[in-house]
Inverse folding.
């Protein structure tokens, strides 16, 4: 009996000592949750790997099995391709392999190995890499390499065995009572499983940077509560729709818990009345942080995250960052602080947010802005203005009326 399977490999988790089993459990939960609507029939741990069983019946009508129980046309099926991609994008997944599970009979192992190599055609060279994780299996890895290798040489007489840089590597892993055989193995996104760090309040604009910053924190195991500020009713509400699409796009990570949309246009107008033009941006941002404090109190959050990178725009100088951070009640993480725009763009493209972030829409930050904002705010001047407004009260009002959109997350 052969069954199609995916093997999920993880390595960083292996470094975490006694946290390891809780990390593995979280990764298994996350994989089960994110593959719920896909043809999956069980996710479980086997030695050093997570096994994802394919539900062959759920692959639907039109699926043809050959006499030996293999899917005709191999594993390159649209539903399985999708599952492959989804598994690779889950934080904590270092690598995913697509192949077959069989028993420990040598005849069956040889037969499946030949099927796997055949599916990799065309190729000119190959090698076998066997590994056994049970010492009760009587054949050692070296000998298994030879046994399977010579069978493959007979089955594919044109192909040559090549130890360095072969076109195809056939992996054979004997784990507990089964053997897993695959040649199709691809890198995942890496990182840590969602839920292994705490919740963060991620300030999410519709720009390029903040979705990447939020993704980076999710990638390190955090659960993000996204907080977006819209300029409505002083601007239109287009950013509110775009930011939903960005969260939807990042939902494949399972790390966006919810999106909070706060309308601050009228409060910005009030700030513009009280604060000298050059300090407005700083106060808009202090208001954002004060609201983030309140959201963290209400929903649970251990840090604030922004997409700033040092020196990128006027508000991102050290003095201005200090003037804004002064109101934060939690650590502020800026995962992009030392990155160049080009690197951020490359990552935005990789995680699929770039095209959304380059769409035009209303931006609350450009409301009531002077031509030359302050680049080196003086704390004394800032504190004097701050005393004229009750941001804590405003933050509570803003939170009372914000829209809350629940996202796809099991945490
Ligand atoms: P981004 O591309 O992420 O908008 P940016 O380079 O345009 O960043 P700013 O507009 O100064 O920089 O914003 C700096 C950070 O402040 C953003 O990365 C984001 O975390 C937060 N921020 C800015 N505008 C908003 C908003 N409308 N809603 C929520 N957070 C925002
Ligand atoms: Mg911006």
């Amino acid at each position: 009996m052969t069954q199609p399977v995916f093997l999920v490999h993880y390595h960083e988790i292996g470094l975490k000592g006694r946290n390891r089993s809780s990390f593995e459990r979280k990764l298994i939960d996350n994989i089960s949750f994110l593959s719920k609507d896909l043809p999956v029939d069980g996710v479980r741990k086997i030695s050093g790997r997570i096994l994802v069983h394919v539900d062959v019946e759920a692959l639907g009508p039109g699926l043809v099995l050959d006499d030996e129980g293999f899917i005709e046309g191999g594993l390159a099926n649209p539903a399985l391709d999708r599952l492959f991609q989804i598994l690779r994008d889950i934080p904590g997944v270092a690598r995913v392999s697509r192949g077959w599970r069989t028993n420990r009979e040598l005849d069956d192992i040889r037969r499946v190995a030949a099927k796997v190599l055949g599916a990799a055609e065309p190729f000119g060279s190959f090698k076998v890499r066997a590994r056994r994780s049970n010492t009760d299996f009587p054949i050692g890895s070296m000998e298994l390499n030879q046994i399977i290798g010579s069978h493959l040489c007979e089955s594919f007489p044109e192909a040559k065995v090549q130890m360095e840089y072969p076109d195809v590597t056939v992996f054979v892993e004997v784990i507990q009572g089964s053997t897993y055989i695959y040649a199709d193995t691809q890198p995942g996104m890496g990182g840590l499983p969602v839920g292994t760090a705490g919740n963060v309040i991620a300030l999410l604009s519709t720009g390029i940077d903040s979705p990447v910053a939020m993704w980076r924190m999710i990638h390190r195991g955090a659960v993000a509560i996204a907080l977006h500020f819209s300029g409505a009713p002083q601007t239109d509400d287009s950013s509110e729709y775009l930011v939903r699409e960005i969260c939807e796009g990042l939902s494949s990570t399972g790390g966006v818990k919810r999106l909070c949309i706060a309308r601050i246009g009228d409060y910005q107008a009030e700030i513009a009345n009280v604060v000298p033009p050059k300090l407005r941006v700083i106060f808009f941002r202090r208001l954002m942080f004060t609201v983030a404090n309140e959201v963290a109190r209400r929903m649970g959050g251990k840090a604030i995250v922004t997409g700033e990178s040092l020196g990128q725009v006027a508000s991102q100088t050290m003095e201005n960052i200090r003037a804004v951070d002064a109101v934060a009640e939690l650590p502020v993480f800026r995962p992009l602080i030392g990155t160049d725009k080009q690197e951020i763009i490359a990552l935005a493209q990789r995680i699929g947010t770039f095209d959304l972030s380059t769409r035009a829409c209303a931006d609350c930050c450009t409301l009531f802005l002077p031509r030359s904002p302050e680049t080196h705010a003086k704390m004394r001047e800032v504190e004097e203005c701050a005393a004229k407004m009750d941001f804590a009260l405003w933050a509570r009002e803003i939170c009372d009326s914000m829209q809350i959109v629940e996202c796809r997350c099991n945490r």
Residues 199-406 form a domain with the Rossmann fold fold (CATH 3.40.50.620). Residues 232 and 312 are 26 Å apart (CA to CA). The mean pLDDT is 94.
